[in-house]
Amino acid sequence: MSAQIIEGKKISDRIRGELIAETEALKAKGIVPGLAVVLVGEDPASKVYVGSKEKACQQLGFYSEVHRLPSETGEGELLALIDRLNKHDSINGILVQLPLPKHINEKAVIDAIAVTKDVDGFHPESVGNLVIGDDSLLPCTPAGVIELIKRSGVDISGKHAVVIGRSNIVGKPVAMLLLRENATVTVCHSRTANMEELAKQADILVVAIGKAKAIGRKYVKPGAVVIDVGINRLPDGKLAGDVDYEDCLETAGYITPVPGGVGPMTITMLMKNTITAAKRANGIKE
Q1: Is there a binding annotation on residue 231?
Q2: Which of 97, 117, 244, 279 is catalytic?
Q3: What integer pLDDT is reported at residue 9 of this predicted model?
Q4: 227: part of which helix (H) or strand (E)?
């Protein structure tokens, strides 16, 4: 039996349809969700991401601003721009595209974004709210992972979830969100002694380590849900996840492909966060 493929593109399109309807309802009340994206420098991958975010804003009917700054932009100049955007009433969400040039302190920039406009969910206060279970704007990729699982008809509650990877961007927040959904969560990382044994106990296995095809079927419990957050470019130019997709296809119950799995969800969840921020800024209950 081959695994059921979780098609992130289809699920993402369905959510975008819902978000378009929400945006129309807000516009009827005179509210237009607004997103500002800041790009410093010429990183090719970042330019592609920013272009995708711009397109998504147009598709949903948002107000959007893109600030493209040269790589030599000073930290003070960038912080001054963030301060202006924090005070700008038409902007509900601010996203500074990472990575930043080495002379700019990433933490200082993330900390400067108003927590109410932190649509990336990276601000320490947002992270703290996530940990204690208070309302916050959720980090986009981890939130997308949860949506993929739920919209595939899988009940997370009571399941054993194993997360391989402990980054601040994916591993830790996805573990917190799985806990919030009442899963029992184990986090594995490069120092985990018996990773294969632990992974094989998972009903839900989330992999985010940045190593192409590192996780094969020997890590997968038959029938498990396998969510691959990795995206790696192979020597032949093709994209591959952290999971060896072909190897796991017959063992997993559900699996995300790369590309076309988690990827499309990230920008969609960013749009969802921007709508949430716009509602909160206007005192609209969700």
Answers
A1: yes
A2: 97
A3: 96
A4: strand 225-228
Cis before 264? omega within 30: no
- Which residue has tokens 């695994």? 3
Q: Record the pTM.
A: 0.95
* Contact between 77 and 91 (Cβ < 8 Å): no
Give Cβ neighbours of residue 11 (< 8 Å, ≥ 6 apart).
147, 148, 151, 152, 264, 265
The DSSP-derived string for 84-140 is HHHH-TT--EEEEPSSPPTTS-HHHHHHHS-GGGBTT--SHHHHHHHHHT---PPPH
pLDDT tens-digit readout, 270-285: 999 999 999 999 999 8
The helix-helix angle for 140-151 and 8-28 (nearest 10°) equals 110
Q: Scan for tokens 């349809």, then name that residue.
A: 17
- Structure tokens belonging to residue 262: 């988690």
198-211 pLDDT tens trace: 999 999 999 999 99
232-233/239-240 β-pairing:
antiparallel
> Is 84 marked as a binding-site residue?
no
Catalytic residue flag (residue 53):
yes
The answer on whether 165 is annotated among ligand-binding residues is yes
Q: Is 120 considered catalytic here?
A: yes
In the chain, the amino acid numbered 98 is L
* 167 carries a ligand binding annotation: yes
pLDDT (average), residues 190-218: 97
Q: Active site includes 58?
A: no
Which residue among 118, 120, 203, 244 is the active-site one? 120
Round to whole Å and give the CA distance between 12 and 248. 24
Q: Which member of 10, 29, 47, 53 is catalytic?
A: 53
Domains parsed from the chain with CATH numbers: 29-114 (3.40.50.10860), 140-264 (3.40.50.720)
